[in-house]
Amino acid sequence: EEIRGHFVKFVENASKMTPVGIAVLVVVALLLISSIDHTLNHIWRVRKNRRLVVSFSIYLVVLTLGPVLIGISLITSSYLLSLSGIGENELQAVRKLLLATLPYLASFLSFLLLYLLVPNTRVHFRSALSGALIAAILFELSKYAFALYFTHFPVYQAIYGVLAIIPLLFIWVFVSWVVILVGAQVAASLDVFLANQRNVVNQELESTYT
Question: What residue numbers bound the domain in which 201 lies?
Answer without folding.
Answer: 2-208
